Request: fold
Amino acid sequence: MVRAAPEAADLLVTGIGELTTNVPASDDLCGTVRDAAVLLRAGRIVWTGPAAEIPDAASAVPRHDVRGAAVIPGFVDSHTHLVFGGDRSAEFTARMAGRPYAAGGIRSTVAATRAATDDALRARLSALVAELHAQGTTTVEVKTGYGLTVADEERLARLAREVTEEVTFLGAHVVPAEFQDDPDAYVDLVAGPMLAAAAPHCRWVDVFCERGAFTPAQAERVLAAGAARGLGVRVHGNQLGPGGGVGLAVALGAASVDHGTYLDDRDIAALAAGDTVLTLLPGVEFSTRQPYPDARALWDAGVRIALASDCNPGSSFTSSMPLMIALAVREMGLTPDEAVWAATAGGAAALRREDVGVLRPGARADLVVLRAPTRAYLAYRPGVPLIESVLIGGRGVAGSALSAARRS
Ligand code: NIG
Ligand code: FE
Reply:
C-alpha cells in the first residue's frame, strides 16, 4: 500500500526569482510570476503570487528563502516500466555498434523478472523511484509488462502499487515465448484472467500496438476488457514504424498514446482533433538511434504533448526528466517553456490529473527548486544537476536542501 506521509506543516517559500505555475495567462503558457512566494498548508498549495502580496495569514508561518531561484511544479513522468529484473547493458552496447532495436529484447527482461524475488524487485523499484525523486519527478506512472503470466503480472502490479497510485496493466507488452504459436490464446489470457488478477491494483490498461507485438484488433480487445473493468486507456503506438496505434487510441478516447516516432498526416489530424495526449519519449530515440519526431510541427498542428522518460531496461534506461526537456528542445524543436510545460502539465494531462503539474490553490504541494534563475536552464545546461530541492505533498525528499526542514 502507498504509505500516507504524516501531515506536512505550513511553509512559506520566498525569494522565488521565477515561479512557473502552469496557470496559463494569455501570452504565457507557463503562468510565470516573478519575485514570487508560495504558501503551503497540509500538503497543498494555499496561495501563490508576487512577494509584495503575501497574505496576512502567512505572517506567522515558517519561511524558506530560495534566494532568487526558479521554482517549477514537480515533473509528472507519465510513462515508465520500473518493475523488472536483469540487465540489458550488453544489448545497448551491441545497438550502439549497429544492431537495431527490436521488441524481442523485452523477453530477456521477462525471464529475469520472473526469476526475481519480490524483495529483489521491490529493492530495484524503490531505488529507481528515489532516483526519479532526486531529479525532480514528483508523480510517476509505472507499468507492468515484464511478467506475462497471471501470477507475475498480478505481483508486478501489486509491487508498483506500493510506490504509486498510477499503475498500468501492460500484460499485452509482447507475446511470451510459450504462446508464440498461438498469440490469440495469449490475448484471451490477457483480456481474461490476467486482467482480472491485476486490475484491482491498477488505474490504467495499456497495449504495445506494433508490428511484432499486438495488432490493432488484438489491442482493442484488451483495451475494451480493461475499460469494462473501469480502467483508463493508454496505448504504446507508432514506435517502430507507422501503424494503427495512434488511430486506435484516439478513436477509443485514450488518455494518452505514447511514442509517436512514426506519424503520418492522418495520425496528426486525429490527435489534433481528439482528446488524446501524445506522450513523446525522446529517451527512446536517443537510446535506440531512431529519428526524433518533429514536436514543433506537432505542437503547431494543435497536438497536446507530454514528455516522459519511458524508463525501462531496454529502450530508454534513464529516469531524467531534465534530459527529456533538453532533448525535446535541442532535437525536437520545442521551446524551453513548451518542454517544461510538457514535462509537468502535459504529463498531468496524460494521466488526467488536475492536482499535479500545476501550482495553484488546492493542488498538491509538489514543487522543485532549481539551482538556476530560470526554467530555461533545464535545456540550456544539459546534463548538469540543477535540482536543488524537491517537495512532494509539501514534504522534502531526502537529499534536497529543503528536506532537513521538511522531514520529521
Ligand atoms: O516503451 N515499446 C515497448 N515497451 C518499452 C520497451 C521495453 C523494453 O525494451 O524492455 C518501451 O519502449
Ligand atoms: Fe514504454
Q: What stands out?
A: The chain has 14 helices and 16 strands. The mean pLDDT is 95. The two ends are 21 Å apart (CA to CA).
